[in-house]
Amino acid sequence: MTGSNMSDALANAVCQRCQARFSPAERIVNSNGELYHEHCFVCAQCFRPFPEGLFYEFEGRKYCEHDFQMLFAPCCGSCGEFIIGRVIKAKCEKPFLGHRHYEKKGLAYCETHYNQLFGDVCYNCSHVIEGDVVSALNKAWCVSCFSCSTCNSKLTLKNKFVEFDMKPVCKRCYEKFPLELKKRLKKLSELTSRKAQPKATDLNSA
Length: 206
Description:
3 domains, Cysteine Rich Protein, elongated, alpha+beta
């Protein structure tokens, strides 16, 4: 835009706040393409100029930092200061003090409350699992609880095991089962595999 065209544009421009025209010699404030008289570019609440030009905008109106905080910003429950930015709400009143915390849907929880509300419950001991979770047989298990239901030997997902009475049985114990029982378990496993395709080890490979 040439100087002549710019002068013509300013001659036809009006202040965003008062809708009056600008005089040729006055200073004009340009805020994101919106033009203001210098005395019109003020806080919508206290009508004072913005310190260092800093302002916050809400629903089309501009506010200085102090008035924006007083009108709209929440207070931190710990330090009492106004919060500008992301707000995290806590479940209990105990400070985290550097300890681990968990967030879910904008809320913050200490480890105890998070586990109580959202943690996996071990199928064997019925306690909320703290730490790693073993997911097997469509259930959750503590690492220490995931063991053969017959001999109590510890199992991992790398071990071969079969499901019996909704619990894992290691390969060694399975081999000791009566032949008729193994046949029934094999048939049941095949039927279940066709219907739900579970992740339990196939009896043919056990």
